[in-house]
Specification:
With 399 residues, this protein is α/β, with parallel strands linked by helices. The protein contains 15 helices and eleven strands. It has a five-stranded parallel beta sheet with strand order 2-3-1-4-5, with helices on both faces. Helix 1 packs across helix 9, helix 3 runs antiparallel to helix 5 and helix 6 packs across helix 7.
């Protein structure tokens, strides 16, 4: 099963995307619908709400008077927190029940309007955000729902902004154009990404990065690294001790393969092994054929680790799980920080990368490309250590 978080601002067209995904075969867990179910007449949830806010939030027929409740909680952070404290656990419990009932091999789409606001993005292997410009959303809310314009703008302003949603989004669906354009984008997302992602997770199959092909630096690499690192950290829980974006895409301005390298710190390799199922569930199956780094200097004791590839066909990621304080853990951070600080070393490394990429461009995978770089790492390690000593560098995840 693959869990997908779907969100978007009010009026963005999120429900349209959800309906299209259901047509393609997804199982939908609609948080708005569940939120209504858990406070339906006769439910314990409605009784709790009435006890907290008074009988004035009940309509004459005993149902919830939503406008009356909204007039109490809208703009009152304490009242809203009290309401959420009642309804959110009920919604989560019902959502869990629906997910548990989904068949094997399902793509379960959880439609959560406030996914970003609630900090829930790291809990999903993939987050899809539906976007439309503010003015278009206001037009839809006024024209289709009959909402007063001032209310529409106030509701939009009370939700996360585009920057926060972009930071959480693995997939950004622009719904500012024609309906047919959105349908085509959703269909492509389903066929090209969601279906193979689910199958890869179920079969414990990773997506290989392929041949060595360098691309120009992408300003989005840092955000992608942070987003996926948060996902890994959430999955690792107490066994995890920091997730760092390392490798070439963590060095600003450095051309690289379009691959995010992450390092998860653990206290022992036993703890690393205990995380296999949790990491697989968020899209990171383990590859047991990769269990060590090349030590520095060559011939030293092996630098053992665990390695997990990514199952998402839309974003190659290498996840290295290393013991905190081990030589391999330290070297990954040192190399990143030295290359960030030393322009001459960065240029030298880029020349090595370009030469190796040109030489092995026809290879189906990048094994020989990686081997050529390893020779440079061996020779450069003493210089990186000298820089560390002269600069007072210490290993830190915060950089």
């Amino acid at each position: 099963m693959l869990r997908v978080g779907l969100t978007g601002g009010i009026g963005s067209g999120k429900s349209t995307v959800a309906a299209r995904l259901v047509e393609r075969g997804a199982v939908l867990v609609d948080s708005d619908r569940i939120a209504r179910e858990v406070v339906a007449p006769g439910t314990p949830g409605l009784a709790e709400v009435a006890a907290a806010f008074g009988d004035g939030v009940l309509a004459a027929d005993g149902s919830l008077d939503r406008p009356a409740l909204a007039s109490i909680v809208f703009g009152d952070a304490d009242a809203l927190a009290r309401l959420n404290g009642i309804t959110h656990p009920l919604v989560r419990r019902r959502s869990d029940e629906l997910m548990a009932a989904a068949p094997d091999g399902a793509v379960v789409v959880q439609d959560i309007p406030l996914l970003v606001e609630g900090g829930m993005a790291p809990l999903f292997p993939l987050v899809v955000v539906v976007h439309a410009d503010v003015e278009e959303r206001v037009r839809r809310l006024v024209g289709s729902r009959g909402m007063p314009e001032a209310d529409a703008r106030a509701r939009i302003a009370n939700q996360a902004d585009d920057a926060a949603r972009r930071a959480a989004a693995d997939v950004w669906l622009d719904n500012s154009g024609a309906p047919a354009d959105l349908e085509a984008a959703v269909d492509a997302l389903w066929a090209d990404r969601l279906v193979p992602f689910e199958e890869n997770v179920r079969l414990h199959r990773t997506v290989r990065a392929g041949a060595a092909r360098l691309v120009e630096p992408d300003p989005g690499w840092a955000a992608a690294g942070a987003r996926i690192a948060a996902r890994v950290a959430a999955a690792a829980g107490e066994r995890g001790h920091g997730v760092a974006h390392v490798g070439s895409t963590a060095v600003p301005g450095l051309p690289a393969k379009d691959v995010i390298d992450l390092q998860l710190g653990v206290t022992s390799l036993d703890d690393a092994d205990a995380l296999d199922d949790a990491l697989t569930a968020v899209g990171f199956p383990r590859r047991p054929d990769i269990d060590r780094d090349s030590p520095k200097p060559p011939g030293s004791a092996p630098w053992l680790k665990r390695y997990h590839g990514y199952a998402d066909p839309g974003r190659p990621v290498h996840l290295h799980v290393r013991v905190v304080g081990s030589p391999g853990w330290r070297y990954a951070l040192l190399l990143r920080d030295w290359l960030r600080a030393d322009a001459a070393a960065r240029a030298e490394y880029l020349a090595v990368k370009r030469s190796a990429a040109d030489r092995y461009a026809a290879d189906a995978d990048a094994a020989r490309y990686a081997g050529a770089k390893e020779l440079w790492f061996d020779a450069a390690a003493p210089r990186a250590e000298a820089w560390a000593a002269s600069s007072g560098w210490t290993a830190s995840l915060a950089r």
